[in-house]
Amino acid sequence: MKTYWRKLVMSTLAAALLSFPLHAQQEEPADSTGLPGDNFSLEAALELFKKAKSPEEFEKLLNIEDNAVNNLDLNEDGKTDYVRVIDRMEGDVHAIVLQVPVSANESQDIAVIEIEKTGAENAMLQIVGDEDIYGEQVIAEPFDEETQPNEGRNGPSPTLAPIRIVVNVWGWPAVRFMYRPAYVVYVSPWRWGAYPGWYRPFRPHPWRVFHVRARPYRAHYHVVPMHRAVVAHRVYAPHRSHSTVVHTRTVTHINTHGKRGNVHATKTTKTTTVKGKNGRSVTKKETKTKAKGNGKGNGRGRGRN
After folding, report:
1. Is residue 287 part of a domain?
2. Residue-number span of the structural domain to which 203 is assigned
3. Which of 37, 51, 181, 258 could make a disulfide contact with 263, Cβ separation 3.0–4.6 Å?
4. Cα–Cα distance between 76 and 13 in angstroms, integer?
5. What is the pLDDT of residue 72?
6. What's the whole-model pTM score?
7. How confident is residue 144, by pLDDT bands cut at 50, 70 and 90?
8. Is 149 helix (H, G, I), strand (E, B) or coil?
9. Considering the domain boundaries, does residue 126 fall inside one?
10. First to last CA, the chain
Protein backbone atom coordinates (compact mmCIF):
# COMPACT_ATOMS: atom_id res chain seq x y z
CA MET A 1 0.00 0.00 0.00
CA LYS A 2 2.84 2.39 0.89
CA THR A 3 4.49 1.63 -2.44
CA TYR A 4 1.28 2.54 -4.31
CA TRP A 5 0.93 5.93 -2.58
CA ARG A 6 4.63 6.68 -3.08
CA LYS A 7 4.31 6.04 -6.83
CA LEU A 8 1.14 8.16 -7.02
CA VAL A 9 2.82 11.14 -5.31
CA MET A 10 5.92 10.87 -7.50
CA SER A 11 3.88 10.70 -10.71
CA THR A 12 1.82 13.74 -9.65
CA LEU A 13 4.95 15.79 -8.92
CA ALA A 14 6.50 14.77 -12.24
CA ALA A 15 3.39 15.83 -14.14
CA ALA A 16 3.38 19.19 -12.37
CA LEU A 17 7.05 19.83 -13.15
CA LEU A 18 6.60 18.94 -16.81
CA SER A 19 3.60 21.20 -17.22
CA PHE A 20 5.19 24.25 -15.55
CA PRO A 21 7.57 25.33 -18.38
CA LEU A 22 4.73 25.09 -20.91
CA HIS A 23 2.54 27.32 -18.77
CA ALA A 24 5.39 29.81 -18.27
CA GLN A 25 5.99 30.05 -22.00
CA GLN A 26 2.35 30.98 -22.59
CA GLU A 27 2.49 34.01 -20.29
CA GLU A 28 3.34 37.40 -21.76
CA PRO A 29 6.83 38.55 -20.65
CA ALA A 30 6.58 41.32 -18.06
CA ASP A 31 9.10 43.64 -19.70
CA SER A 32 7.28 44.09 -23.02
CA THR A 33 6.07 47.70 -23.10
CA GLY A 34 4.22 47.56 -26.41
CA LEU A 35 6.18 50.61 -27.60
CA PRO A 36 8.33 50.65 -30.77
CA GLY A 37 11.50 50.60 -28.63
CA ASP A 38 10.79 46.95 -27.81
CA ASN A 39 11.98 46.26 -31.35
CA PHE A 40 15.30 48.10 -31.40
CA SER A 41 18.19 47.18 -29.12
CA LEU A 42 20.31 50.13 -28.02
CA GLU A 43 22.86 47.77 -26.54
CA ALA A 44 23.16 45.84 -29.80
CA ALA A 45 23.58 49.11 -31.73
CA LEU A 46 26.54 50.06 -29.51
CA GLU A 47 28.13 46.65 -29.94
CA LEU A 48 27.83 46.90 -33.73
CA PHE A 49 29.25 50.43 -33.66
CA LYS A 50 32.19 49.09 -31.66
CA LYS A 51 32.87 46.49 -34.38
CA ALA A 52 32.35 48.78 -37.40
CA LYS A 53 35.29 50.42 -39.14
CA SER A 54 33.28 53.44 -40.30
CA PRO A 55 29.78 54.98 -40.06
CA GLU A 56 28.98 53.54 -43.49
CA GLU A 57 29.83 50.00 -42.37
CA PHE A 58 27.87 50.61 -39.17
CA GLU A 59 24.78 51.43 -41.27
CA LYS A 60 25.12 48.13 -43.09
CA LEU A 61 25.46 46.16 -39.85
CA LEU A 62 22.31 47.77 -38.47
CA ASN A 63 20.24 46.46 -41.37
CA ILE A 64 21.36 42.82 -41.44
CA GLU A 65 18.81 40.45 -39.92
CA ASP A 66 21.34 38.13 -38.27
CA ASN A 67 22.73 40.96 -36.13
CA ALA A 68 19.49 41.11 -34.08
CA VAL A 69 19.48 44.85 -33.53
CA ASN A 70 16.61 46.13 -35.66
CA ASN A 71 13.11 44.64 -35.65
CA LEU A 72 11.21 47.88 -36.34
CA ASP A 73 8.19 48.25 -38.61
CA LEU A 74 7.11 51.85 -38.00
CA ASN A 75 5.07 52.18 -41.19
CA GLU A 76 3.38 48.83 -40.49
CA ASP A 77 3.89 47.35 -43.96
CA GLY A 78 4.92 43.93 -42.63
CA LYS A 79 8.61 44.49 -43.38
CA THR A 80 11.45 45.78 -41.24
CA ASP A 81 12.45 49.41 -41.70
CA TYR A 82 15.78 50.52 -43.14
CA VAL A 83 17.85 52.44 -40.58
CA ARG A 84 20.02 55.16 -42.11
CA VAL A 85 23.01 56.82 -40.40
CA ILE A 86 23.69 60.56 -40.36
CA ASP A 87 26.70 62.17 -38.66
CA ARG A 88 26.08 65.61 -37.16
CA MET A 89 29.59 66.94 -36.54
CA GLU A 90 30.67 70.13 -34.82
CA GLY A 91 34.34 70.52 -33.86
CA ASP A 92 35.39 67.49 -31.83
CA VAL A 93 31.79 66.43 -31.26
CA HIS A 94 29.83 63.82 -33.24
CA ALA A 95 26.14 62.96 -33.05
CA ILE A 96 25.54 59.76 -35.03
CA VAL A 97 21.80 59.74 -35.79
CA LEU A 98 19.99 56.46 -36.46
CA GLN A 99 16.93 57.34 -38.51
CA VAL A 100 14.10 55.53 -40.30
CA PRO A 101 12.34 56.99 -43.37
CA VAL A 102 8.71 56.31 -42.43
CA SER A 103 7.29 57.69 -45.67
CA ALA A 104 8.32 59.84 -48.60
CA ASN A 105 7.68 62.92 -46.44
CA GLU A 106 8.56 61.91 -42.88
CA SER A 107 11.51 60.40 -41.02
CA GLN A 108 11.75 59.27 -37.43
CA ASP A 109 14.91 59.31 -35.31
CA ILE A 110 15.36 56.05 -33.44
CA ALA A 111 18.44 56.93 -31.41
CA VAL A 112 21.60 59.03 -31.49
CA ILE A 113 25.14 58.02 -30.50
CA GLU A 114 26.74 61.07 -28.91
CA ILE A 115 30.55 61.17 -28.91
CA GLU A 116 32.88 63.65 -27.24
CA LYS A 117 36.65 63.74 -27.21
CA THR A 118 37.92 64.14 -23.66
CA GLY A 119 41.68 64.04 -24.22
CA ALA A 120 44.42 63.47 -26.78
CA GLU A 121 43.56 59.78 -26.95
CA ASN A 122 40.36 59.68 -24.96
CA ALA A 123 36.72 59.74 -25.98
CA MET A 124 33.42 58.79 -24.41
CA LEU A 125 30.00 58.08 -25.85
CA GLN A 126 26.39 57.36 -25.00
CA ILE A 127 23.42 56.25 -27.04
CA VAL A 128 20.12 58.03 -26.44
CA GLY A 129 16.87 56.34 -27.49
CA ASP A 130 14.25 58.74 -28.84
CA GLU A 131 11.19 59.48 -26.69
CA ASP A 132 8.78 58.73 -29.55
CA ILE A 133 10.26 55.23 -29.77
CA TYR A 134 10.81 54.39 -26.10
CA GLY A 135 8.17 56.56 -24.43
CA GLU A 136 10.90 58.73 -22.91
CA GLN A 137 14.60 59.17 -23.52
CA VAL A 138 16.60 56.05 -22.67
CA ILE A 139 20.36 56.51 -22.23
CA ALA A 140 22.81 53.61 -22.41
CA GLU A 141 26.60 53.45 -22.42
CA PRO A 142 29.41 50.89 -22.42
CA PHE A 143 30.93 49.99 -19.08
CA ASP A 144 33.81 47.99 -17.71
CA GLU A 145 34.46 46.68 -14.24
CA GLU A 146 37.49 46.90 -12.00
CA THR A 147 37.87 45.70 -8.45
CA GLN A 148 38.90 47.58 -5.36
CA PRO A 149 39.27 46.43 -1.73
CA ASN A 150 36.29 46.69 0.59
CA GLU A 151 37.36 48.88 3.51
CA GLY A 152 35.63 48.12 6.77
CA ARG A 153 35.97 49.68 10.21
CA ASN A 154 38.99 47.52 11.02
CA GLY A 155 40.94 48.37 7.88
CA PRO A 156 40.99 46.96 4.35
CA SER A 157 39.02 43.80 3.77
CA PRO A 158 40.50 40.92 1.77
CA THR A 159 37.36 40.84 -0.41
CA LEU A 160 37.28 42.85 -3.64
CA ALA A 161 34.22 44.82 -4.74
CA PRO A 162 33.62 45.37 -8.48
CA ILE A 163 32.89 48.93 -9.60
CA ARG A 164 31.72 50.09 -13.02
CA ILE A 165 33.88 52.58 -14.88
CA VAL A 166 33.26 54.71 -17.97
CA VAL A 167 34.91 53.20 -21.05
CA ASN A 168 37.43 55.09 -23.17
CA VAL A 169 36.21 54.38 -26.72
CA TRP A 170 39.18 55.97 -28.50
CA GLY A 171 40.30 52.51 -29.60
CA TRP A 172 37.04 51.73 -31.38
CA PRO A 173 37.78 51.68 -35.16
CA ALA A 174 34.82 53.87 -36.17
CA VAL A 175 35.74 56.50 -33.55
CA ARG A 176 39.33 56.66 -34.78
CA PHE A 177 38.03 56.84 -38.36
CA MET A 178 35.83 59.86 -37.61
CA TYR A 179 38.61 61.76 -35.83
CA ARG A 180 41.03 61.48 -38.74
CA PRO A 181 42.00 64.85 -40.28
CA ALA A 182 40.76 63.75 -43.73
CA TYR A 183 37.39 62.47 -42.50
CA VAL A 184 34.42 63.42 -44.69
CA VAL A 185 31.23 63.67 -42.64
CA TYR A 186 29.02 60.69 -43.45
CA VAL A 187 25.40 61.24 -44.43
CA SER A 188 23.54 58.19 -45.70
CA PRO A 189 22.67 58.53 -49.40
CA TRP A 190 19.65 56.23 -49.03
CA ARG A 191 16.08 57.47 -48.84
CA TRP A 192 12.49 56.22 -48.73
CA GLY A 193 12.09 53.67 -51.52
CA ALA A 194 15.77 53.87 -52.55
CA TYR A 195 17.92 51.32 -50.71
CA PRO A 196 21.27 49.60 -51.40
CA GLY A 197 21.36 46.43 -53.49
CA TRP A 198 22.52 44.26 -50.59
CA TYR A 199 19.54 45.24 -48.40
CA ARG A 200 17.02 42.47 -47.77
CA PRO A 201 14.05 43.53 -45.63
CA PHE A 202 12.51 40.73 -43.59
CA ARG A 203 9.31 40.15 -41.69
CA PRO A 204 9.61 41.36 -38.07
CA HIS A 205 10.13 38.61 -35.54
CA PRO A 206 7.68 38.15 -32.63
CA TRP A 207 8.76 40.19 -29.63
CA ARG A 208 9.65 37.11 -27.58
CA VAL A 209 12.02 35.89 -30.29
CA PHE A 210 13.70 39.26 -30.85
CA HIS A 211 14.08 39.88 -27.11
CA VAL A 212 15.95 36.61 -26.62
CA ARG A 213 18.18 37.17 -29.66
CA ALA A 214 19.21 40.65 -28.48
CA ARG A 215 19.79 39.62 -24.85
CA PRO A 216 23.53 38.76 -25.13
CA TYR A 217 24.37 42.37 -26.08
CA ARG A 218 23.35 43.64 -22.63
CA ALA A 219 26.36 42.14 -20.87
CA HIS A 220 28.67 45.11 -21.50
CA TYR A 221 26.22 48.04 -21.75
CA HIS A 222 23.88 49.47 -19.17
CA VAL A 223 21.18 52.12 -18.89
CA VAL A 224 22.12 55.27 -16.98
CA PRO A 225 20.01 58.19 -15.68
CA MET A 226 22.05 61.13 -16.95
CA HIS A 227 23.69 62.69 -20.00
CA ARG A 228 27.48 62.66 -19.96
CA ALA A 229 27.89 63.84 -23.54
CA VAL A 230 26.20 67.18 -22.85
CA VAL A 231 27.80 69.12 -25.72
CA ALA A 232 27.05 66.40 -28.26
CA HIS A 233 23.43 66.34 -27.13
CA ARG A 234 23.17 70.10 -27.71
CA VAL A 235 24.61 69.65 -31.20
CA TYR A 236 22.00 67.00 -32.00
CA ALA A 237 18.87 68.53 -30.44
CA PRO A 238 18.11 71.20 -33.10
CA HIS A 239 18.24 68.56 -35.86
CA ARG A 240 15.94 65.95 -34.29
CA SER A 241 13.42 64.49 -36.76
CA HIS A 242 10.16 62.87 -35.76
CA SER A 243 7.13 61.49 -37.56
CA THR A 244 3.69 62.80 -36.66
CA VAL A 245 2.24 59.33 -37.20
CA VAL A 246 4.76 57.65 -34.88
CA HIS A 247 4.47 60.39 -32.25
CA THR A 248 0.66 60.18 -32.18
CA ARG A 249 0.72 56.39 -31.97
CA THR A 250 3.18 56.43 -29.06
CA VAL A 251 1.30 59.12 -27.12
CA THR A 252 -1.97 57.24 -27.58
CA HIS A 253 -0.38 54.02 -26.34
CA ILE A 254 1.09 55.72 -23.27
CA ASN A 255 -2.21 57.40 -22.41
CA THR A 256 -3.94 54.03 -22.60
CA HIS A 257 -1.34 51.66 -21.17
CA GLY A 258 1.32 53.77 -19.46
CA LYS A 259 5.02 53.87 -20.29
CA ARG A 260 5.64 50.49 -18.72
CA GLY A 261 2.89 48.62 -20.53
CA ASN A 262 0.37 46.20 -19.06
CA VAL A 263 -1.58 49.07 -17.56
CA HIS A 264 -5.22 49.85 -18.23
CA ALA A 265 -7.90 52.11 -16.80
CA THR A 266 -11.11 50.78 -15.29
CA LYS A 267 -14.28 52.70 -14.52
CA THR A 268 -16.50 51.95 -11.54
CA THR A 269 -19.98 53.42 -11.37
CA LYS A 270 -21.80 53.60 -8.04
CA THR A 271 -25.54 54.27 -8.04
CA THR A 272 -27.34 55.56 -4.92
CA THR A 273 -30.96 56.57 -4.36
CA VAL A 274 -31.79 59.39 -1.95
CA LYS A 275 -34.88 61.45 -1.15
CA GLY A 276 -35.02 65.00 -2.46
CA LYS A 277 -36.55 68.04 -0.73
CA ASN A 278 -40.02 67.30 -2.10
CA GLY A 279 -39.91 63.71 -0.88
CA ARG A 280 -39.30 62.22 -4.31
CA SER A 281 -36.58 59.63 -4.86
CA VAL A 282 -33.51 60.90 -6.68
CA THR A 283 -30.92 58.58 -8.26
CA LYS A 284 -27.28 59.69 -8.21
CA LYS A 285 -24.42 58.11 -10.15
CA GLU A 286 -20.74 58.44 -9.22
CA THR A 287 -18.09 57.21 -11.66
CA LYS A 288 -14.46 56.68 -10.63
CA THR A 289 -11.56 55.88 -12.95
CA LYS A 290 -8.65 53.83 -11.66
CA ALA A 291 -5.49 52.68 -13.42
CA LYS A 292 -4.55 49.05 -12.94
CA GLY A 293 -1.36 47.23 -13.85
CA ASN A 294 1.03 44.54 -12.78
CA GLY A 295 3.49 47.04 -11.36
CA LYS A 296 6.30 45.63 -13.45
CA GLY A 297 8.56 47.71 -15.65
CA ASN A 298 10.36 46.84 -18.83
CA GLY A 299 13.38 45.50 -17.01
CA ARG A 300 15.80 48.10 -18.35
CA GLY A 301 15.24 51.28 -16.40
CA ARG A 302 14.80 54.67 -18.00
CA GLY A 303 16.88 57.78 -18.41
CA ARG A 304 15.64 61.33 -18.75
CA ASN A 305 16.96 64.46 -20.34
Report:
1. no
2. 32-149+158-257
3. 258
4. 46
5. 98
6. 0.74
7. confident
8. strand
9. yes
10. 70
